[in-house]
């Protein structure tokens, strides 16, 4: 093949790319077909040049055909994502580094001295299982009346909680450095109440509905004329809540009304009735009622009495 | 008030790990979508581009009214889609009176727009209009040859950028091993003028020649079109430098304090730092460090036994 001396192609075998910087297309275009033909012939030359290098690479024979080892591409193209950032060492890692603690590989099967067997370290029937301890000896520092088994569980829960907190802190510092592991997401669950660290409790749908109902009925017109939002359900039971027991008890069922009155009577006539009945309050209520009955109407609607006026027969009636 | 969320299924975890930033990246996926209006040519261009890149492309069929790549606020939708589908190249087609048959090719870095180039499509010939022997039809997903001809690609900055974008678009995955029988397509791009590029897709016919290297023959099969450069946006320098960074960029560190000698071989020099007696981490002799104590005790026992054994031996003698 004769190639002109200045026809050096830039070939990138790794990308199967070839560039011919020296060809000049005529500025006065011949017919479209001729232009296309010219382009295709130039292209063929380039592909041939790449194939020359490609087929001369050392190849291995496989069932599908000859396999060649491609060199890495030489044209630099921009990455699609940033380079992975190094994650900052966790608090334990920093401590271990400072103290010179080395990581030791733990075996999956460990010798259990109590049963003289080899047991696994984690999982079913494990060595040093917390639930298997039959007896915990009392120490001088133990308080009487404290359950040591429950204490152990409690301690474990606390340890687990502390570990989770530390893990979250480590992940937060990793996220700050932009090096959060790919499968972990840190999600903000709720807005904190300013000034406190307490997590606001999540209110359920029903509770919200109840509160909305309460707010509605607390208006002057009892929520009757409030504009309803789209999707708002009508308020639940309105008005007074009464439970009326059946007058005639069902066959075989206990007479609920009778039971109700019996219960009250029983409480009043029992030994401890003085504890249930507030005698002073009862007397006051009785006297008030009597006086109201005498006056005939409630105090609010009546015009206020003039105390200074003397009533001729007031005492005599009593 | 933060919560750690991890995927509940292994599949989800694998997907997340696949999409995470890595040292060696996966092949870039292409997102193909269109704007409010598309002409017949433009919709067939987008469809055929999708077919060519099947396996590494996602095509959206709805029209997107709020995407304006060259305006400052109009890229948010694109960035969101790029994040959702994990696509780093997009091809956005639109047809307006001012810019008929407009195709915007863009790339993303970290799901933010990196660079854009806008081309107009002229003289489009569809896949279906080419008649050829079906036996040589290229297979889906095969690695293509990419050829650029013309001095324009070196001298004109817009064409330079277009060359880079087209390489990125057609390249597919970077592979280590290539099966030579699977080479069946080539993209030919020729800079016929400083503003026009002729792009065509051909199938490869390998013919017997005298040597191991077969003779190549190209047959036009695929869509062919003229790309007229309209607008473009280059990445800003800082972003470009960051995106071009690769892990192998660090120059090989000069190995110090090692010298080779023919007589003595490889020799190294070791410098011992000053010993700070006050700052060495002392062994932890607290009660909790059981393993060390146990091991120490065992060692002691062994030594004692050996000592007594040797004594006994001496006595017996």
UniProtKB/TrEMBL annotation, chain A:
This protein's GO CC annotations: nucleolus; preribosome, large subunit precursor
Keywords: Nucleus, Ribosome biogenesis
Domain of life according to the entry: Eukaryota
Pfam families documented for this protein: RRS1
UniProt GO BP: endonucleolytic cleavage in ITS1 to separate SSU-rRNA from 5.8S rRNA and LSU-rRNA from tricistronic rRNA transcript (SSU-rRNA, 5.8S rRNA, LSU-rRNA); ribosomal large subunit biogenesis
Main location: nucleus
Chain residue ranges for the region called Disordered: 58-89, 219-243, 287-318
Biased composition (Basic residues): 307-318
Biased composition (Basic and acidic residues): 224-235, 296-306
InterPro entries given in the database record: Ribosom_reg (IPR007023)
Cell compartment(s), UniProt: Nucleus
Function: Involved in ribosomal large subunit assembly.
Similarity section: Belongs to the RRS1 family.
PANTHER family given in the database record: RIBOSOME BIOGENESIS REGULATORY PROTEIN
Protein name per Swiss-Prot or TrEMBL: Ribosome biogenesis regulatory protein
Species assigned in the record: Brassica napus
Gene that this sequence comes from: BnaA04g21760D
From TrEMBL, chain B:
GO cellular component, one term: nucleolus
GO MF entry, a single one: rRNA binding
SMART domains, alphabetized: Brix
Protein family per UniProt: Belongs to the RPF2 family.
Recorded superkingdom: Eukaryota
Localization: Nucleus, Nucleolus
Region annotated Disordered, chain positions: 238-317
Brix domain ranges (all copies): 28-238
Segments of skewed composition (Basic and acidic residues): 238-249, 256-265, 282-295, 303-317
Protein's UniProt keywords contain Nucleus: yes
Protein name: Ribosome production factor 2 homolog
Gene Ontology biological-process annotations: maturation of LSU-rRNA; ribosomal large subunit assembly
Keywords: Nucleus
Nucleus is among the record's keywords: yes
UniProt-listed InterPro entries: Brix, Rpf2
PROSITE patterns: BRIX
Species of origin: Brassica campestris
């Amino acid at each position: 093949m004769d190639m002109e001396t200045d026809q050096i192609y830039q070939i990138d075998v790794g990308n199967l790319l070839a560039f011919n910087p020296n060809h000049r297309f005529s500025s006065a275009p011949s017919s479209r077909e001729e232009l296309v033909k010219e382009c295709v012939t130039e292209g063929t030359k380039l592909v041939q040049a790449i194939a020359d290098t490609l087929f001369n690479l050392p190849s291995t024979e496989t069932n599908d055909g000859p396999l060649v080892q491609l060199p890495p591409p030489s044209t630099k193209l921009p990455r699609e994502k940033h380079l992975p950032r190094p994650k900052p060492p966790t608090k334990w890692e920093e401590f271990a580094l400072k103290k010179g603690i080395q990581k030791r590989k733990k075996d999956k099967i460990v010798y259990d001295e109590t049963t003289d067997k080899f047991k696994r370290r984690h999982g079913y029937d494990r060595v040093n299982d917390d639930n298997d301890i039959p007896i915990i000896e009392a120490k001088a520092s133990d308080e009487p009346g404290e359950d040591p088994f429950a204490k152990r569980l409690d301690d474990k829960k606390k340890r687990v909680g502390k570990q989770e907190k530390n893990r979250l802190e480590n992940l937060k510092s990793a996220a700050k450095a932009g090096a959060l592991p790919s499968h972990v997401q840190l999600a903000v669950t709720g807005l904190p109440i300013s000034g406190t660290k307490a997590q606001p409790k999540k209110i359920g749908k029903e509770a919200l509905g109840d509160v909305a109902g309460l707010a509605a009925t607390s208006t002057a017109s009892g929520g009757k004329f409030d504009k309803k939002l789209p999707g708002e359900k009508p308020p639940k039971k309105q008005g007074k809540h009464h439970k009326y027991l059946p007058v005639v008890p069902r066959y075989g069922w206990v007479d609920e009304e009778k039971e109700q009155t019996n219960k009250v009577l029983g409480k009043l006539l029992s030994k401890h009735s003085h504890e249930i009945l507030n005698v002073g309050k009862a007397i006051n209520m009785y006297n008030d009622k009597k006086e109201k009955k005498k006056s005939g109407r409630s105090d609010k609607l009546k015009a206020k009495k003039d105390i200074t006026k003397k009533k001729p027969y007031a005492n005599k009636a009593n | 008030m933060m919560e750690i969320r991890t995927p509940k299924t292994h599949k989800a975890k694998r997907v997340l790990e696949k999409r995470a930033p890595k040292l060696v990246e996966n092949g870039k996926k292409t997102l193909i979508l269109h704007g409010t209006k598309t002409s017949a040519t433009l919709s067939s261009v987008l469809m055929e581009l999708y077919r060519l890149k099947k396996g590494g492309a996602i095509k959206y069929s709805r029209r997107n009214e709020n995407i304006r790549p060259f305006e400052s606020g109009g890229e948010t939708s694109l960035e969101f889609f790029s994040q959702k589908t994990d696509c780093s190249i997009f091809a956005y087609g639109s047809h307006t009176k001012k810019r008929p048959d407009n195709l915007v090719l863009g790339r993303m870095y970290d799901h933010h727009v990196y660079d854009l180039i806008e081309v107009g499509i002229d003289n489009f010939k569809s896949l279906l209009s080419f008649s050829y022997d079906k036996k040589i039809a290229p297979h889906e997903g095969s690695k293509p040859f990419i050829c650029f001809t013309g001095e324009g690609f070196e001298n004109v900055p817009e064409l330079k950028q277009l060359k880079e974008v087209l390489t990125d678009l057609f390249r597919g995955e970077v592979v280590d091993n290539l099966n030579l029988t699977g080479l069946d397509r080539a993209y030919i791009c020729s800079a016929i003028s400083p503003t026009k590029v002729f792009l065509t897709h051909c199938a490869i016919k390998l013919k017997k020649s005298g040597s191991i290297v077969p003779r190549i023959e190209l047959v036009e099969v695929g869509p062919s079109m003229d790309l007229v450069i309209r607008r473009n946006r280059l990445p800003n320098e800082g972003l470009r430098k960051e995106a071009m960074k690769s892990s192998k960029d660090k120059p090989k560190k000069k190995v110090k304090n090692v010298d080779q000698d023919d007589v003595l071989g490889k020799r190294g020099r070791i410098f011992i730092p000053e010993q700070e007696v006050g700052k060495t981490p002392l062994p932890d002799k607290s009660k909790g460090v059981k393993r060390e104590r146990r091991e120490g005790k065992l060692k002691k026992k062994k030594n004692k036994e050996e000592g007594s054994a040797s004594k006994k031996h001496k006595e017996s003698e």
